[in-house]
Amino acid sequence: MSLAEIRNVSVKMGIQEILHGVSLDVPKGAIVAVLGANGVGKTTLMRAISGVYKVASGEILLDGQPITNMASHKIVEQGVCQAPEGRQIFSNMSVRENLVLGGGTKGLGELDKVLTLFPVLKERMGQGAGSLSGGEQQMLCIARALMARPKLLLLDEPSLGLAPKLVALIFELVSRIREEGVSILIVEQNARAALKVADHAHVIDAGRIVLSGPSAELQSDPRIIEAYLGGHVA
Hints:
It contains 10 helices and 10 strands. It is an alpha/beta fold. The protein has 2 domains: 157 residues, Rossmann fold (3-Layer(aba) Sandwich), CATH 3.40.50; 60 residues. The strands form 2 sheets. A 6-stranded mixed β-sheet has the order 6-7-8-3-9-10, with helices on both faces. Strands 2-1-4-5 form a 4-stranded antiparallel β-sheet, with helices on one face. A hairpin with a 2-residue loop joins β1 and β2. 43% of the residues are buried.
């Protein structure tokens, strides 16, 4: 059963069409990855789902109900939360204050669960968010999104700028979040890491989905190996 359905979605910036009829599903309890190079439309897709960018045509459904072009705060209330590319934490505020903001009208009901997933943040609650390491800032970005109790978590390039060990840790946490019952749509340039945790994956190029399939199959697809895995499978 699908939690989220993206149906033939197109997005324009002025007269330029950035996404061209993109369709994909996120089943309940699944991790779905969208892979592609920088500038091919991955972030545009995320922002269209979360209501930041207007959908020119097509529709987006959550639990079978349309959320297309709904106001962003209403989409959050429906259960869709995004951890944006580049983290975008409030660096002049404390870790606690960032998490409180993430909870919004739902308050601090998820705080204990979030801190169980991210114990390093519990140790730094009073610390300025801008003083955290890059990996800790990414954890805070994801934790802040989880504070609103999402059904669907959107992760935009969570490995960006992180050392390999931290990338592995972040994706381990992604798997644990799914175990908590949260469905996840992740867009990534790091295909190797994303394919290891995702159930299903899509490749986007020039605003179009050009390849889709179970992650296990795509890991051995020669086109994926050549384009994204450095010519070999790890």
